[in-house]
Amino acid sequence: MLGAMPISPATPILLTEDDQERLKIEGVLRVMEHVGSDPQRIESALFDTLYEERRRLEKEHDRDKARAQRQFYDQIQAEALRANAQRQRQLLKRIVESFAAEVAGHFDPRFYALATKVVPTGLSVLLNAMSPIELVRAASHGFRTLEERIVVGGEVDAVQRAARHGTVVLVPTHSSNLDSILLGYGIMRMGLPPFLYGAGLNLFEHKFIGIFMHNLGAYTVDRRKQAWVYKEVLKTYAGCTMELGLHNLFFPGGTRSRSGAVETKLKLGLVSTALEAYINNLRRVTERPDVFIVPCTLNYQIVLEGETLIDDHLKEVGKSRYIIEDDEFSKPRRIIDFITKLFALDSRIHMIVSRPMDLFGNTIDDECRSRDRRGRVVDRRKYVMIDGAPAHDGQRDQEYVREIGRAIVERFHRDTVVDATKVLSHVMFEWLREENRDMDVYRLLRTGGAVESLPLSEAHERVDRMLGALRALAADGRARLDDTVAGRDATKVIDEALAHLGCYHRRPAVARRGDRLFHVDRNLLLYYQNRLSGFDLAAGGGRP
Amino acid sequence: MSARDGMDVLVVGAGRMGTALGTLLARLGRRVTLYARREDLARVIDEEHRNPTYLRDVRLPERLRATTDLAAAVTQTPLVVMAVPSQSFRDAARAVGDHLEGDQMVVHTTKGFEVESFNRMSQVLREETCTLKIGVLSGPTIPEELVAGHPTGAVVASAYTEVVEAVQDLFKGGFFRVYGGRDVVGTEVAGAFKNVVSVAAGAVQGLQFGESTRWLLITRGLSEMTRLGAAMGADVLTFAGLAGIGDLAATCVSPHSRSHQLGRRVAAGESVDTVLADLHSIEALPTSDAISRHAARMGLELPIVRAVHGLLHEGWHVQRALAHLMSVPVGDELVAPRTR
Question: What pLDDT score does B296 carry?
Answer without folding.
Answer: 86
